[in-house]
Specification:
seven-stranded mixed beta sheet, 306 residues, four-stranded antiparallel beta sheet, Ribosomal Protein S5, domain 2, alpha+beta, Alpha-Beta Plaits, 28% strand, 10 helices
């Protein structure tokens, strides 16, 4: 039985890192930072927010969750129910960590629930991917683990692997953000055959590495020629950290999404404390370092009726 649309709902959605080197617009990974949204039907819209960028998250104007919620309901010809939202956000905004994908999915899922749209998982992911323009972050956020995805005219095809929970990751955050639109504008319109083959080979190896839990393959599997070389100027952490990929303590170094954050996989013999000590030798003090794991997908909890 479908829950009634006048019941409250709680959504929890993970951060994501896309591309992972060569998997441009195709590969994504769920990370253990989350956006939590509790929504109750109300007489007027309101938001109480805590966590990262709480002031931006709490804004009623130009709020991606609410704008998405309203537009999906309007397009479906459904009444827009005002909501009282309580949000806790752990995902850095504008840092290549999938904050927009999580917000879009939250908006679509809220519209699905309160508009009684019956979209299902596939419909929610397809709609959010259409709004995002590409499915990599969206698929990873909703399904969790490591995902590869492609968008067709009708839907989004997704394959996912849960990932190894023992693998330890470090996210390096610079103080300034970078808009995805700006990062995309840096890319060329065409690539050489050599660069295309280079990335195809490594993208295939990347999928195999996650399918077989082969951390040892990531050093080669995350090499890229399609987007990272063109984004080094606005993403200075990449140039600083990429040489560490040749050190035995580090399994891989990539931009997180379009940047400017950088995601590192640690080797099995390296602890976060050891990695932090090494990273602090080359990074400025204002760079934030977060220890993360591969996360599961989004969760929905139906709360009490109002």
């Amino acid at each position: 039985m479908q829950p009634k649309p006048n019941t409250a709902i709680r959504l929890t959605l993970p951060a994501t890192s896309a591309n992972l080197g060569p998997g441009f617009d195709a590969a994504g990974l769920a990370l253990s930072m989350h956006l939590s949204v509790e929504a109750h039907p109300a007489t007027t819209f309101s938001i109480r927010a805590t966590g990262r960028n709480a002031d931006l998250v709490a804004a009623l104007d130009r709020n991606l969750i609410l704008d998405t919620y309203r537009s999906v309901l309007a397009n479906a010809g459904k009444k827009v129910t005002p909501l009282k939202l309580t949000i806790h956000n752990e995902i850095p905004l504008g840092m290549g960590c999938g904050s927009s994908a999580a917000a879009l999915l939250a908006g679509v899922a809220l519209a699905d629930h309160f508009g009684d749209l019956n979209l299902g998982d596939q419909g929610i992911v397809a709609e959010a991917s259409r709004l995002e323009g590409h499915p990599d972050n969206v698929a990873a956020c909703w399904y969790g683990g490591f995902t590869v995805s492609t968008q067709t005219a009708e839907t989004v095809e997704v394959a996912t692997f849960p990932g190894n929970p023992a693998w330890e990751l470090v996210l390096a955050l610079q103080p300034t953000s970078l808009a995805t639109k700006e990062a995309r504008a840096l890319l060329p319109d065409t690539y050489s055959r050599a660069d295309a083959v280079f990335n195809i080979q490594r993208s295939a190896l990347l999928v195999a590495a996650f399918a077989q839990n082969r951390l040892d393959l990531l050093r080669t599997a995350t090499q890229d020629r399609l987007h990272q070389p063109y984004r080094t100027a606005p993403c200075p952490l990449l140039a600083q950290l990429l040489p560490l990929a040749s050190e035995p303590e580090i399994a891989s170094v990539t931009l997180s999404g379009a940047g400017p954050s950088v995601l590192l996989f640690l080797s099995e013999v390296t602890t976060f404390l050891e990695a932090e000590t090494r990273l602090r030798q080359i990074l400025s003090p204002e760079v934030e370092l977060l220890t993360l794991r591969i996360a599961g997908g989004a969760t929905k909890t139906i709360l009490t009726a109002v």
